[in-house]
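Sat 14:20. Reprocessing the chain from the morning session after the first attempt stalled halfway. Input below, unchanged.
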Amino acid sequence: MNKRFDLICVGMALLDSIIKGFDPQPISASGYRAASGTLNVGGEAVNEAVTGAKLGLKTGIVCALGADEAGEMVRNTLRRSGVDVSRIVRGESTPVTTMFVHADGTRKSITNEAHRFNFHPENDPAAFTDASALILGSLFRAPFDDPAIIHAVLKAAKEAGQIVLADTKLPNFRFLKLDDLRDSLPLIDYLTPNEDEARYFTGKTEPEDMADALLSWGVKHAVIKLGAKGCLMKTKEKTVTLPAYAIHAVDATGAGDNFAAGFVSELLRGKPAEEALSFANACGALCATAVGAGTALQSRDQVLRFMADTPFMR
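Finished this time. Tokens:
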């Protein structure tokens, strides 16, 4: 059956206030300095949808935005990027995240109560099943911090024949364990935590052991993003490891989301999972070369040139 979209992304949409080079020494009783401060559209579903559209996919998004200026900023960016915004749910307020980015590109974030808003995609399966692939961004954050919502969405996606990729985030308000998702994890084709998230959820310290633990819960492909150490993908039959690209990391915000969209982009083009992993690895690395999740990556051709011209870390 022909689908209207190649990819639909479901999950968080927000505004990132990104602060680089924060100096903890006050310059006055209530004043501090930083090297820079920028506002960037973000949220896992937004980052993935924008990246998917830039990579040439017909992309839609299911997310919640407030009827406020922050929400309009997010919506306008999505539209300019070519993402279908007809399935956005409007609520009271758009989440705003404050991000402190360190010199090596790593970051810390501050969330607020607006991040808890649980909209209900499971009530309208047609909103997310009219696509060849679905990305849940991100598992363990609203709306995917409710086992019933997670299972209903995944069940509808698999019944519709979709490829399902689920990215993960560490919980911030509601804390779930893998055991809470025992019926849902076997419905996921590709689960893509980073190393910290995989360690938190599995209790393992080595990437291969983390992947084995996720596979034992029924996930079909466990993909562990390892930052400066590259990435690992494991199934019951084989293990694939890739080194990281040698880049100057500026800001890792959204790198995992670019990775996820890049991975699905290549799968939908019929590439083997190993080739899709290599392309995804490049998308994540390219993202980290500029401030903001949607700044650096602009097209599939750009990613291919990056892969050809950029060496791996030694």
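The chain has a mean pLDDT of 94.
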